Amino acid sequence: MKLTTMTQVTIDGVMQGNGHASDEERRNGFERGGWARGRGDAETHAFINRTYQRADAFLFGRRTYEIFAGSWGSLTERDVPGWEPVMRALNTRPKYVASTTLTDPAWPGTTVLSGDVAAAVRELKAETGGELQVHGSGALTRWLLENDLVDELTLLVVPVILGQGARLFPQTGPDLALDLVESRVDSKGVTIQVYRPAGRPQYAAA
Known about the structure:
CATH class: Alpha Beta
Largest sheet: 8 strands, mixed
Number of strands: 8
Strand order of the largest sheet: 4-3-2-5-1-6-8-7
CATH topology: Dihydrofolate Reductase, subunit A
Number of helices: 5
CATH architecture: 3-Layer(aba) Sandwich
Shape: globular
Strand content: 15-25%
Radius of gyration: 17 Å
Distance between the termini: 41 Å
Structural class: alpha/beta
């Protein structure tokens, strides 16, 4: 399977609290949740639905898993008009969680990866199939990139600057070159950028 990630971010790189303002997303004093709601147009919604439909399995970090399980895992298709493909994919396909503390996941179809996560992910990637998808899960996404486990990275960039909140990439960290595979902008200014990791960047000589 190809490991792909999809993350909604602001212009200043914030990913925290994109869809709601739950207590979980108010950590560290963050109070600007829900910044991505209603931002994309119908084409962007269709792109997201198609992406979830392509998934053969999902991989989550602990925090994102609990948020998804508490929402997508407890609602019905009737509760999410327009997002039925996302609901069906998340509730019918295998889900994996990288966690050393989660022991009894309540969402059916969940497997906890608590040992050698890198080895477990490589085993999943070696299986035949389409995509092992990561949604949200910022810390996990950064770790996967650092360990050369990501095949494709999709960013949905919402035209807003928050000035606070957890960012997808830290102020200091490993460097990575990216090849642009696809880019589009919707009628509401949301850009979709699909990248493939391409090793380390080249820098000018001193």
